[in-house]
Amino acid sequence: MTYKTIFTVATQAEHVPLTIAAAARFCAQNDAHLDVLALGVDRTQMGYSYIGTGAVLLQVAQERADNDARALEAAVKAAVAAEGPGLRVSTEAAVTQIGAITEIVAQRARFADLVILARPYGTDQGIEAEAVVESALFEGRAPVLVLPESGLATATPKRVIVAWNQGREAMAAVRAALPLLKQAEQVTITVVDPPVHGPERSDPGGMLCQMLVRHGVHAEVSVLARTLPRVSDVLLRHVRDRDADLLVMGAYGHSRFRQAILGGATRNMLEQATVPVLMAH
Predict the structure, then answer these.
(1) Is the pLDDT of residue 50 over 50?
(2) Of 99, 112, 246, 267, which has the fewest beta carbons less than 10 angstroms from its beta carbon?
């Protein structure tokens, strides 16, 4: 597998240069095509209104979303131009209501090999940023690379941490990250407090390590005790200790109304990680 179609969604003009630059690096490294969706979002939630005001509010919100989409498309084209003529890219501008983000993002994400997005948290991020990540992961079933505030240092990470808990989400992330793992100098399969009665109780991470080594990956296993309150804290400290360039992990979620929303552990990782995080579900 290689990454031949890279996809990103622009919802905030401030993050466009960061995401386009990262996507362009991946495209150059993999001879890939970049698809960009400039998405103007109507954030109104129409509950009740005084007679005669509803239509006005809807029209104002629609016009604002249209203007946002055009501004985002212009920002995307400027960022693409800054990358030079070698980048193959397609740009689409669209408008959607906040409740319909899932459909428009998932439809495009499911045809991408990798989705690259800015961190969905922070004072300058809108509520749509997390919805975009969730839509790509849970409905689009695409691997998502979430960038830290510093952006992407390299499209070929040398030191990678794989968060392993024997779950299907973690395995999906490993398979999605395999092209990057094969290029890395060192891949550390990290297991935190493995269950004493689990199927890998005698050799935590051993079967995964064997699988990766057969693919030519320079892999090793690191078993850690849970010495901090949260598993995410242990993993993030391990990322710092190993001076890792990339963290690979499963995306976990829960919801009673949608297919899933990001779970607490996943949210903690994305909020605190200082390196790119590649996730899959």
Answers:
(1) no
(2) 99
